[in-house]
Amino acid sequence: MLNALVTYAAEEAEAHNPLIPAWYDIIWSAVCFVIILFVFWKVALPRMKKMLDERSAAIEGNIAKADEAQRKAEAALEEYTSQLAEARKEAGEIRDAAREDGKKIVAEAKDTASAEAARLTATAHAQIEAERQSALVSLRSEVGTLALDLAGGVIGETLSDDAKAQAVVDRFLAELEESEGAKA
């Protein structure tokens, strides 16, 4: 029996090629393939396409956001640069104004000091002139008294008349001033 079985298998093996499947295997395999293809085409492929579209939209959205952020950053940089330039310009103007104010303050201080010096000089000159006049009046009265006493001693009489005495003193001082004027 064993022998018969081996012989039957050998005959059938010669009649049938083992590399080619049987017709029922091909049909059932084709049916399963079509069902799997249909399910894949109707279910898996749309889901996959939807997922890829969402990813693509998200990537494009992120790229748009990045571009917008880049534009905002560039705008902020330009604004910062312009503000910095404006601040530097304003600082220069403030510095120049401070220098001008300093020059004005120094000039005003010099003018005030000059005016004060002129006022003090004028006051000193007026005071000196007043003291000179006071000394001259005092000197005239003392010189007059001395001259009257000397004249009284020379003449031998006292000059008691005030008007006469004053005229003698004035004449004496005028002659004294004339003699000083002639020397100079």
From TrEMBL:
Q: How does it sit in the membrane?
A: Single-pass membrane protein
Q: Entry's InterPro entries?
A: ATP_synth_B-like_membr_sf, ATP_synth_b/b'su_bac/chlpt, ATP_synth_F0_bsu_bac, ATP_synthase_B_chain
Q: What residues form the membrane-spanning segments?
A: 26-45
CDD domains given in the database record: ATP-synt_Fo_b
SUPFAM superfamilies assigned:
F1F0 ATP synthase subunit B, membrane domain
Q: Which domain of life is it from?
A: Bacteria
Q: Which Gene3D superfamilies match?
A: F1F0 ATP synthase subunit B, membrane domain (1.20.5.620)
Keyword terms of this UniProt record: ATP synthesis, Cell membrane, CF(0), Coiled coil, Hydrogen ion transport, Ion transport, Membrane, Transmembrane, Transmembrane helix, Transport
A Pfam family it matches: ATP-synt_B
What subcellular compartments does it reside in?
A: Cell membrane
Q: Which residues form a coiled coil?
A: 59-97
In the UniProt record, does the keyword Electron transport occur?
no
Q: Does the keyword Nuclease apply?
A: no
What the record says about family reads: Belongs to the ATPase B chain family.
Record note on quaternary structure? F-type ATPases have 2 components, F(1) - the catalytic core - and F(0) - the membrane proton channel. F(1) has five subunits: alpha(3), beta(3), gamma(1), delta(1), epsilon(1). F(0) has three main subunits: a(1), b(2) and c(10-14). The alpha and beta chains form an alternating ring which encloses part of the gamma chain. F(1) is attached to F(0) by a central stalk formed by the gamma and epsilon chains, while a peripheral stalk is formed by the delta and b chains.
Function of the molecule: F(1)F(0) ATP synthase produces ATP from ADP in the presence of a proton or sodium gradient. F-type ATPases consist of two structural domains, F(1) containing the extramembraneous catalytic core and F(0) containing the membrane proton channel, linked together by a central stalk and a peripheral stalk. During catalysis, ATP synthesis in the catalytic domain of F(1) is coupled via a rotary mechanism of the central stalk subunits to proton translocation. Component of the F(0) channel, it forms part of the peripheral stalk, linking F(1) to F(0).
Protein name according to UniProt:
ATP synthase subunit b
* Organism per entry: Microbacterium jejuense
Q: Which gene encodes it?
A: atpF
